[in-house]
């Protein structure tokens, strides 16, 4: 099999395994994996901007929350059904990402981190400010009756798993295709040496803008699905920790690899899950594991595989 | 006239780097731009290709005023620029470095063909799959040139391409420039006078940001002002 075939085989293989797992997993892990797939979709979106374009955003919770509230508020207050509500959430995320990109891309490096962080905080405070509609920190529950998509009850674990799998598959394959496309290769080149890309005749600003919109849109889709599948929207999802999570997941899994976001999300989810079963100081165990990983596999788990075993892994 | 520069000046916080330079480059010519260190050569070509915006003056490319165009649009119009300080994508394969340059004007299989051809011209076919950062310094310089060639530019600007190359590599470079001479217009910033004498049709000399002299290599070689500028007795 040629290189492209092996790459495609590996990535499709993961999706097949995830699909099949649904029939064998015990209920507890079944629910976990569904959650991980949605969060990993969020990380996939983050990775487009951070891992492939080299822009470190500390404000992605803004996009995740835009998706979640775009979906949740229209269901709650406008009586939307899930399908149009999801679309509203995703479009809201794209618009917010585009708007923020226009402002934040005037800066670079540390200033970019701070600007994105500040706008995300402003978004978080906006959610709290309109507490009358959003219920602020407390959040609101999306009732089971409101979560029926095309006759499928998304609160049912099996349906939820399939929906999460579907979302993850789309985001994952989109990212696999994107990073091998002309656009994606230009993004990688921007990450490596932006000035050189500019002097090859590319409009680097337009490319970074595009990357941020794609990244924000995927993040918003993950936020919208998260709210719908797990029946809850709350301000916590717009807080700074939800901007840090995808960064951690992507760093651990391997920034700039297609598999990395999923591997990192899975790893961190179960690291906390398992260590909290052992001791109440589970964050200490998680912290030590994270430090060890950054020391011994600074490119993340998948990044390490690429460095040692499979050089051309996208 | 492919390139026309009028009254171009640049000052950095009061330091006058380039002063009121007029400069014409006809289609098809190989022009060398020489001058002592700090004469303003890189600043001048930086203003021509859009990396630096001028304090005053105009740049006209193929009859069109491009003074206000951003760099990437000038490149799209047919300029290519190779950096004085090697600027490649060290963590990407050699062929991807060249393909990135090719992809701006080509699509599909043509990218691979053009990439292979450009690598062939500079003699880097064998290293196509290596990471560019693993190449020797001389090979990285050649890679820069390949990235310029694959764009099939109408004006190729080479900023000190032979800096740090070995004798053998310089000979190969001279042959390459001579082969290109019929195809494209070349603006060559160069310190190595042997290279200038053997490749350039005409030479422009910049000194303290001003155009000191212009002529054939032979005329420049014999020009008393130029000698004074280089020997520091002027």
3D shape of chain A: globular
Which structural class best describes the helix and strand composition of chain A? mainly alpha
Order of helices and strands of chain A: HHHHHHEEEHHHEHHHH
Characterize the largest beta sheet of chain B: strand count, sense, and whether it forms a barrel: 6 strands, mixed
Give the count of helical stretches of chain A.
13
Q: What is the H/E order of chain B?
A: EEEHEEHEHHHEHEHEEHH
Radius of gyration of chain B over all CA atoms, rounded: 18 Å
Broad structural category of chain B? alpha/beta
Taking pLDDT < 50 over at least 5 consecutive residues as the criterion, the unreliable ranges of chain B are none
Q: Using only CA atoms, what is the Rg of chain A?
A: 19 Å
Walk me through the structure:
The complex is a heterodimer of chains A (314) and B (234). In chain A, the strands form 2 sheets. Chain A has a two-stranded antiparallel sheet with strand order 1-4. In chain A, strands 2-3 form a two-stranded antiparallel ribbon. Chain A has a domain of 213 residues. With 314 residues, chain A is mostly helical. The longest helix of chain A is centred in the last third of the chain and has 27 residues. In chain A, 75% of the residues lie in helices and 3% in strands. Chain A contains 13 helices and 4 strands. Chain B has 9 helices and 10 strands. In chain B, a hairpin with a 2-residue loop joins strand 1 and strand 2. The longest helix of chain B is centred in the middle third of the chain and has 14 residues. Chain B is globular. At the A-B interface, helix 8 of A face helix 2 and helix 3 of B.
